[in-house]
């Protein structure tokens, strides 16, 4: 085995680059540093794998309570939020399909509401420090940063769509903070657990975040211009959409509000990219 002092510490619940230290009929043993040697079963061995090779593997505790390596990719790693389907509920808790042979446990004390087979839930994957077992929790608030968010209006952020509220959708911002998307500013289908880029609309006085899915003001027009031009080009250079078109038709066809559509048309007209004709709008 290589000197573990020179091997970066391996982490359970994450992908690790580990070195092959022995080849056996049942697979390969990898240098897990402080975790010791870890078996990579034969079914997961990369082709022509040999001693000295570095292999990218995910580490977890299998059904036989062994630390095991796999080259399969789970739907989430420790520290990530993900929407997963419940495949079983028993006296221990709920079990989620996360893409590995051993399902992911959500103990009863980690369930925000009682989980049901067949339904999807947004959870956070975590490592139980006492047992080294990977588990999940739908009690999301305890994983959200308690400190006020330090963002500026217009900042681009990563969003994970959370639950529906009376005002719109909650979303987790950069895996750290809650924010809110308002119904009247959403022009696309959203589902819980979807990861999507977004923007900070404003940071309120109480530190809470209002969010947008597209940039506001002038940037919003510029962001949509390329999509509108492509839409017209795909239809032979002319689209029947115009300023009299029904707002729902515009939203369904282009995924934006009529206000954004009209602002973009005005900007493209000013720049000589399009012209208004009897049939609608055509490329110049």
Automatic annotation (TrEMBL):
GO terms for molecular function: nucleic acid binding. It comes from the Bacteria. Residues 77-139, 152-214 form the S1 motif domain. It holds the Pfam family WHD_CvfB. Belongs to the CvfB family. This is GntR family transcriptional regulator. It comes from Colwellia ponticola.
């Amino acid at each position: 085995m290589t000197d573990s002092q020179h091997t970066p510490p391996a982490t359970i619940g994450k992908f690790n680059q580990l070195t092959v230290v022995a080849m056996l009929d049942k697979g390969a043993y990898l240098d897990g540093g402080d975790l010791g040697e870890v078996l990579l079963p034969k079914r997961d061995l990369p082709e022509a794998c040999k001693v000295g090779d570095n292999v990218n593997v995910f580490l977890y505790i299998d059904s036989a309570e062994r630390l095991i390596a796999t080259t399969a990719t789970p739907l989430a790693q420790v520290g990530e939020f993900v929407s997963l389907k419940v495949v079983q509920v028993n006296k221990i808790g709920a079990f989620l399909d996360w893409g590995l042979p051993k399902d992911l446990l959500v103990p009863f004390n980690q369930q925000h509401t009682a989980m049901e087979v067949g339904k999807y839930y947004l959870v956070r994957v975590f490592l139980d420090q006492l047992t080294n077992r990977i588990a999940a929790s739908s009690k999301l608030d305890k994983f959200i940063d308690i400190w006020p968010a330090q963002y500026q209006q217009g900042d681009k952020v990563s969003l994970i769509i959370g639950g529906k509220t009376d005002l719109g959708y909650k979303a987790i911002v950069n895996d750290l903070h809650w924010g809110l998307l308002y119904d009247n500013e959403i022009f696309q289908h959203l589902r819980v657990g979807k990861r999507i880029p977004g923007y900070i609309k404003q940071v309120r006085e109480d530190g809470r975040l209002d969010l947008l899915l597209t940039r506001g003001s002038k940037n919003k027009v510029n962001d949509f211009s390329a999509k509108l031009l492509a839409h017209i080009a795909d239809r032979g250079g002319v689209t029947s959409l115009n300023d009299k078109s029904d707002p729902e038709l515009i939203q369904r066809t282009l995924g934006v509000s009529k206000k954004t559509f009209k602002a973009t048309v005005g900007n493209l007209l000013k720049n000589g990219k399009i012209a208004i004709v009897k049939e609608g709008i055509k490329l110049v």
